[in-house]
């Protein structure tokens, strides 16, 4: 387990986070007394780091268009009331 005093951890925060991301636990100390432990979050072996909603085609087949998209949604006679 890696130990850092708070002042050193603040100065080397990127290195501390890289160590945690690599799978190591890091103990943070105040005056050489442990106060907190940073641990990596366990990940599933099959999970991806990106959300599936950001991938192209993730909603494929979930929307059904029932009518012609080029056909007006309301009859031409109703357009007069809008102007």
In short:
With 83 residues, the protein is α+β, with helices and mostly antiparallel strands. 23% of the residues lie in helices and 18% in strands.
Keywords:
83 residues, alpha+beta, YefM-like fold, 3 strands
Would you give an account of this structure?
With 83 residues, this protein is of the alpha+beta class. It has a domain at 2-40: YefM-like domain (YefM-like fold, 3-Layer(aba) Sandwich), CATH 3.40.1620.10. The protein has three helices and three strands; from the N terminus they run βααββα. It has helices at residues 6-11, 13-21, 79-82, and strands at 2-5, 26-30, 33-38. Strands 1-2-3 form a three-stranded mixed beta sheet. The protein starts with a strand and ends with a helix. The mean pLDDT is 83.
């Amino acid at each position: 387990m890696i130990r850092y005093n708070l002042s050193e951890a603040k100065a080397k925060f990127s290195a501390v986070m890289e160590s945690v991301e690599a799978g190591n636990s890091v103990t943070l100390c105040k005056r050489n007394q442990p106060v907190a432990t940073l641990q990596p979050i366990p990940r599933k072996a099959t999970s991806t780091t990106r959300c599936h909603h950001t991938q192209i085609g993730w909603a494929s087949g979930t929307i059904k268009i029932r009518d012609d998209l080029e056909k007006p949604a309301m009859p031409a006679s109703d357009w007069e009331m809008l102007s």
